[in-house]
Structure formats: C-alpha cells, structure tokens
Amino acid sequence: MNCIIVDDDKLSCQVIGEYVKKTPSLTLVGVYDSSVEARTVFTKRRDIDLILLDIEMPEMDGFDFLSSLESPPHVIVITANEAYAAKAFNFNVVDFITKPVLFSRFCKAIDKIKRYSTKQEYSVQAEKEIFIKKGTSLVKLKIKDIIYIEALENYVTLNTNEDRFVVHFTMKGIEEYLPQELFVRVHRSFIVNKTSIKTIAERTLDIVVGRAIKNIPLGKSFKDSFLNDISVMSH
C-alpha cells in the first residue's frame, strides 16, 4: 500500500517515516511539508492508497487539503491538537492520532484500514437477500435489515425492526455467514448490527429496534474485541 506523509513538522515526518519502514504492508512514496505540493503530486498520481496527514500547516491546512481532493484515499490524521478529532471524522478518516505517536498506536490505525478495505465486499453482502421459512411461506430478508441475533437453544432468532424469524443454526455458523463489517458478536448469546448501536455501557449496550430501545448484555470475554472493532475515538 503506497502512502505519503503530509506534515510540516520535520521530526514528526522522521518518526512516522520510520514507522512506515517497519510496516511490511506500507511503502513510503513521498514526504511533503506543504499540502499544496502534496495536492499537486496527488492529482498526477493514481497509486497513492494512504495519506498520513497533519492538520496545522501553512497555506492550506489539512481539512482544506482533503476538501480539495475529488476522491481521497484512506486518510489517517496525525496531529498535536486533539480538538480537531470531531471535524476529522466528518471527513471519514480511518483514524485520528495525537502526537507524540507510539508505534503500537500507529499499527492499530493501519490495522483499521484492512477493515475499511473490505467495504465494497461488505456492501455486496449487506445487500444480499436470503429466504427464510416462516410458517408455510418463504419470506425474503435483506442481510442489512437484521438488527440483532439471539441464541435460543439449538436455534437462533433473527430480529428485524418489524419481525422475528427462528432458524435452525448455531451462533458460530451464523457469525461466520454474516459480513463482519456490519455485525459484531457482543455476548455468547447475541450478535448485533453495528448501525443499530445507540449507547455502550460497562456491561451492556442499547440498540435501536424500530421505535424501541433494547438493552443487550456485553460479555466480558467479547468486550475488548468489540471495542477494538468499532470506531472509538482514542489517542
């Protein structure tokens, strides 16, 4: 994955450059202390997959730089001011890191790109339709319309905003079938659609089901992987 660093802080460029060299999946193809220069290069090349971007720069700041790009690639914001975080995520950046940057935190941001890279595949799977038996009929159901799945002895229930289907399936089997970009296991008995999550507490989370709020348990053994899987703003 080809990347460029856009930052007018020479020390930061040196540190991030070393991190890139230590990351097998990345190839550094340019370092720019001017976002204007970086934009000129980017518009001429079609092989840049990732921009490691600072915000506070002369002439054109990081946000203006992103706004000027017609089709920006993956972007990780690396800046000294955490106040820019909310605005940065409005630009759909992969991650937001505050300086000074630890290599472990850099690696975590790069790992997120792997999940972003499957977005197109996820979109196809989410739109996929399945037929589920209900009584004597077969009902068509879009994968993305499933709000949560609950274990029920040797069966699982697929719950939508308006309906509930009971199918003969294991939780492990249904978890492997569902697109990971859209669904996450939060408990041995529950899988939820990420788009339905409203709030997360220490041991529970609230999801929106139709016009109601349903409280779902958050299993201790699932909590760390769950929090790592969703977009939690951190530094």
Q: Helices, strands, pairings?
A:
Layout (H helix, E strand, L loop, with lengths): L1 E5 L3 H12 L5 E6 L2 H10 L5 E4 L8 H7 L5 E6 L5 H6 L4 E4 L4 H14 L2 H9 L1 E6 L2 E6 L5 E5 L2 E5 L4 E4 L3 H7 L5 E5 L2 E4 L3 E4 L3 E6 L2 E6 L2 H10 L6
Please explain how this structure is put together.
With 235 residues, this protein is of the alpha/beta class. It has 2 domains: 2-117, Rossmann fold; 123-229, LytTr DNA-binding domain (OB fold (Dihydrolipoamide Acetyltransferase, E2P), Beta Barrel), CATH 2.40.50.1020. The protein contains 8 helices and 15 strands. The protein has helices at residues 10-21, 35-44, 62-68, 85-90, 103-116, 119-127, 171-177, 220-229, and strands at residues 2-6, 27-32, 50-53, 74-79, 95-98, 129-134, 137-142, 148-152, 155-159, 164-167, 183-187, 190-193, 197-200, 204-209, 212-217. A hairpin with a 2-residue loop joins β8 (148-152) and β9 (155-159). The longest helix is centred in the middle third of the chain and has 14 residues, at 103-116. It is elongated, with a radius of gyration of 21 Å. The model has no long low-confidence stretch (mean pLDDT 89).
Offer a concise description of the structure.
This protein is α/β, with parallel strands linked by helices.
Please bin the fraction of helical residues.
25-40%
Question: What do we call the CATH homologous superfamily of the largest domain?
Answer: Response regulator
Which strand-content bin applies to the residues?
Answer: 25-35%
CATH topology of the largest domain: Rossmann fold
Query: Total domains, how many?
Result: 2
Let me know the average pLDDT.
89
Distance between the termini: 23 Å
User: What would CATH call the class of the largest domain?
Assistant: Alpha Beta
Cα-atom radius of gyration: 21 Å
How can the largest sheet be summarized? 5 strands, parallel
Helix tally equals 8
Give the beta-strand count: 15
- Poorly predicted runs are none
What does the overall shape look like?
elongated
What structural category arises from helix and sheet content? alpha/beta
- The CATH architecture term of the largest domain is 3-Layer(aba) Sandwich
